[in-house]
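Lab notebook page, bench 4
Experiment: in silico fold of construct C2
Operator: M.H.
Input chain length: 258 residues
Purpose: comparison with the prior construct
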Amino acid sequence: MSKWLVNPTPRPNADLRLICFPYAGGNAATFTPWIKQLSTDIELIAIQAPGRASRLFETPYNKMDDLVDELLTLIPPLLDKPTIFYGHSLGSRVAFELMTRLKAQGLPLPVHFIASGSRGPQAKAKENATYHLPDDAFMAELENLNGTPKAVLENKELMELFLPLLRADFEIAETYQYTSQITFDCPLSVLGGEQDSKITHEHLQGWQEFFALPADIQILPGDHFFIDSYPELVTEQVNKIIGQLLAKLPAKAISRYG
């Protein structure tokens, strides 16, 4: 399997597949522990893009188009069975942009989309970009987000390693804005953090614009990084969705994908 795709426990006979897209500066390690809590009817695959974890010394992508172009060469073969896309923060928008490209090319689509801790893709990040700020100012922004441990921020050597990735991911996050008209018929779930000061309920509702079915919006404890603070509550929500999909998908539909 490609180094882009982390599959902690291969389950080739699983009825469903879950593909997870990490937040800015994040990596597959956010998702791999989930396999212990998820239904055995699902196979988990987490995206590991260049510039992080085992790929730390590879050049990270800083443009959404380039990142999604690469994913388009990797993801379609994984859609041979019913698949859920789950993205957190920037990962939600990467997953969404990928889904629009899949639809535009007439390729298979996920059967459920989960946007987590993210504004809708039509909303611009902010008026003032931060990815090009001097190191001190940029790191102050990171500290405000509360997603980078203070011990890491204060470690000069570590930050020298991580800053290129963080700047690249922030450039994608702060410059991407979806302007197409493609919409989807699959169910949509949206997760938000109760104490998330960056993503409001209005931001979460913004996803509804692109999906025909009413969004199921769930607010969980925690701030923007509730996915790290309360993983058991996130996987509980994912397991509910898995259960609903398995109940609704007729056996012939599952075998058609298999």
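Observations: The longest strand covers residues 16-21. Residues 156-175 form the longest helix (20 residues).
Next step: discuss at group meeting.
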